[in-house]
Amino acid sequence: MKSNHFFALIACFLISCKNSNTTKSTNSNLNKIENLHFSKVDITKIKPTTSDYSDNFVLNKDEFLSIHFKLDKPLIKNLQVIGANLTENELLEKGNFQFSFLVDGKIVYVENLSKGAGLKASKTEQLIHTIRLVAPKQLDFWGWFMWLKFMKLGGGQDELSKGSHTLSIEVRPYIKQDTLIVGNLLAKGKINVEVAEIPVDEKLITVQKIQTNSGWEISKDYFDKNKIRALNRKIAENRFENINGIVIIKEGKLLIEEYFNGETRDSLHDPRSVGKSIASTMMGIAIEENYIKNENALLKDFYNLKSFNNYSQKKDSVSLKSLLTMSSRFQGDDNDYSSLGNEENMYPTKNWVKFTLDLPMQKDGKINEDFAYFTAGVVVLGDIIDKSVPKGLISYADKKLFSPLGITNYQWEYTPQKVGNTAGGIRLRAIDFAKYGQLYKNKGLWNEKQILNETWVEKSLDKHIEQSLDNGYYGYLFWNKTFSLNNKEYEVSYCNGMGGNKIFIFKDIPFVIVITTSAYNIPNAHANVDKMMIEYILPAVIEKK
User: Fold this and answer.
1) φ, ψ (nearest 5 deg) of residue 335
2) Of 34, 152, 221, 484, which has the highest C-beta tally within 10 A?
């Protein structure tokens, strides 16, 4: 539902990019410099001297880590060497420091600082640099964010997962125009890193026994408990952060059910945009019962679009299908914080539907062809369903979806007009989200009753629009991608919510997998869930004894 401000803040401070074949670099003095030093003191309280420099750091134990280096000349002078044709302002706009993080001699992560990292004076005058990387609390400082990206997004936490290592940091100037030009090495240094074992209660690692009264038949099929124990340890160590539940259904039976971080089977979980998929379900049921003609119906069939701001003939062409596939071409993109229709601009308004229909249309792109993630459009779909079905969306959903699935414990959020919030405002138990996923796995059938039209299920899970957010496709408010494991590919459609919340519905293997999390402000939350799936969950349930 709501966007990840934390990730956006990181993006504002930093722009990372790996060196590529477009990079020009001169590093002839690579082995001649050893002028970068590390300290473990709180530099806000102590001005470090050479006696405070350290050659060892205990990860997960030592609270502070800073780096210190001295240049022969300010950064701007080094930028002038590789960009002699640019003015000082152009150099500061297009260039900055590049930091390379090496673990045991291997480059793991490269960060090209954005122009906003560091004051102008630090680039044009300063020779001595002190940069804070690690602190017990979040710092509003680019060095802290750089370390976070190295660890959580750049692979650092996997390279530094256990044992003893050498961490090296190298500093160079760079300029990014048509190509990335990297200058000579300015500073480098290394420190020995010992990874402290994180103490974990062994009770948290044991595979949890499925309790009675689950509403499911219990599967007796084999799965690799060692893999699940290893995953549970990573969750307990907070390597995979804020994971709340894992429910795995195999062939319609409950195989694994586990809860973490204070949640239980009865916890109503907020999965954010996972709830968008339920809007697709209710649209399909409303169409099947002839309350809505079909998904090709147009917005103008439900609203007088000329009564809203920024009317255009292009707006007349917006169909329900284009809203279902995030291809309506309104000026709304939740992944662009400057977009007029970004969801964060919608929430403070008094009428979310009016906010959406007041938006202008994009001048470029084609309706039903070009993808942009547009939460406000799903709010409009919910409003259309609410207007079209007997007693409104919430009553209709209870009668036609939740009651037939035996789901009685759930909670809606509401729009300002008291309509069920289809942006992602519905809470269910993880085990009931599994029922919802299994309904699609069953092609709309539940307890020998066709709750959802099979053709609608196929359309919903189909690959209608190519989207670049995770290099996959988009259906009717469902995502599609492929997991690769041991040279085999496994296609999956899934519901997707902020923080890594997922309902995975596999195409060719008999699994529905639910992962609930509260990692709403963790920038690598979705990547963590993918890693859990590829390295632990899928091997545990697919691989044979």
Assistant:
1) -95, 5
2) 152
Q: 431 with 214: CB under 8 angstroms?
A: yes
pLDDT (tens digit per residue) in 346-401: 999 999 999 999 999 999 989 999 999 999 999 999 999 999 999 999 999 999 99
pLDDT of residue 545: 67
The span from the CA of 502 to the CA of 496, in Å, is 5
How many CB atoms lie under 10 A from the CB of residue 325? 26
Per the rule left: phi > 0, alpha: psi between -120 and 50, beta: everything else, 461 is alpha
**pLDDT score of 450 more than 80:** yes
* 341 φ/ψ angles, rounded to the nearest 5 degrees: -95, 15
Entry pTM: 0.91
H runs (alpha helix) in 304-451: 313-316, 320-324, 343-346, 352-357, 375-388, 392-397, 430-441
What's the token pair of residue 208? 């949890």
pLDDT in tens, 48-96: 999 999 999 999 999 999 999 999 999 999 999 999 999 999 999 999 9
Tokens for 296?
């090709």
150, 111 Cβ separation under 8 angstroms: yes
Residues 193-213 have pLDDT tens digits of 999 999 999 999 999 999 999
Asked whether residue 12 carries a pLDDT value surpassing 80, the answer given is: no
Average pLDDT over residues 14-26: 44
Rounded Cα distance, 365 and 374, in Å: 15
**Per-residue pLDDT tens over the stretch 221-252:** 999 999 999 999 999 999 999 999 999 999 99
For 394, what's the count of Cα atoms within 13 Å in the CB-facing half-sphere?
14
d(CA 468, CA 332): 16
Rounded to whole angstroms, how far apart are CA atoms 519 and 529?
Answer: 10
- E strand segments, 44-162: 53-54, 56-59, 65-70, 95-103, 106-113, 128-134
Amino acid identity of residue 322, one-letter, is S
Give the chain's length.
Answer: 545
Between the alpha carbon of residue 400 and those of residues 25, 394, 403, the distances in Å are 63, 10, 7
Contacts of 11 (CB under 8 A, 6+ apart): none
pLDDT of residue 457: 98
